[in-house]
Amino acid sequence: MNLIDGKKISLEIQEEIAKEVKDLLSKGHKKPHLAAVLVGNDGGSETYVASKIKACEKVGFKSTLIRHPEYVTEEKLLQTVRQLNEDKDVDGFIVQLPLPRHINEQKVLESILPSKDVDGFHPINVGRMVLNLPCYVSATPYGIVQLLGKYKIETSGKRCVVIGRSHIVGSPMSILLAKNTALGNATVTLCHSKTEDLKSHTTQADIIICALGSPEFLKADMVKEGAVVIDVGTTRVASTETKSGFKLKGDVKFDEVAPKCSYITPVPGGVGPMTIASLLKNTLLAAKKEIYP
Questions:
Q1: Dihedral angle at the C-alpha atoms of 84, 89, 95, 96, nearest 10 degrees?
Q2: Which positions are catalytic?
Q3: What parts of the chain have a pLDDT lower than 50?
Q4: Does the pTM exceed 0.85?
Q5: 126, CA 20 to 30 Å: which among 21, 92, 138, 142?
Q6: Number of structural domains the chain divides into
């Protein structure tokens, strides 16, 4: 069993970005600028945004955090988005999900300019991804593809099962793996809550991407010997073992599944750090105007 070290690969990518930023600055270019909008005080979102800000500092980006209370109105949030769209110094920005129930999440995401949508959630970026046109690819699927590439995990001709069909991970992941590209050409089955006899699909898979948000869902009897397992889950569960009072659990029952795998990602330290690295890469592309001149 080989452990896929997302933290190590993420740091390597950040070092590459930092070098490129230094080169840009030496040529008179302004610092790439990433902004984040955070609504409320969700623990997971707080941790993730703090990691993004720290990573921006590490690679030489300028970062801005805009906070709104849980009760912020939809119009007020949309006003913030419009201001960031118009701010010429901001190269890219994200609105951290999830949003409170009284806010229409899709409306907010569609109000972000595609050229500044470094999370890759706008329908235009999603559509361009489907058509294999230049775009910002959703950060988590983009990070997973990079991990597969860095570890030289063959995808061409392989059977791949993606569990979960969210617009953030599952659906774009299935599209990327099926594409006629170097890190694609897999035969992909997209499974979800309505899939009958899920085990019959997963036990045939060479690669499993588990993105359900259901702690320890994937068990050893659902995985064949030698499979590659990518665990996207990061659910906070109560724990008396940590100072914070919680620990992160993945979608995979790691201790059971890992011995059967050729490669597997841990939680934490697997996919999570790669999401941040991918966001930084998208922001650098935005600063260089490579996707939307």
A1: -150
A2: 52, 96, 119
A3: none
A4: yes
A5: 21
A6: 2
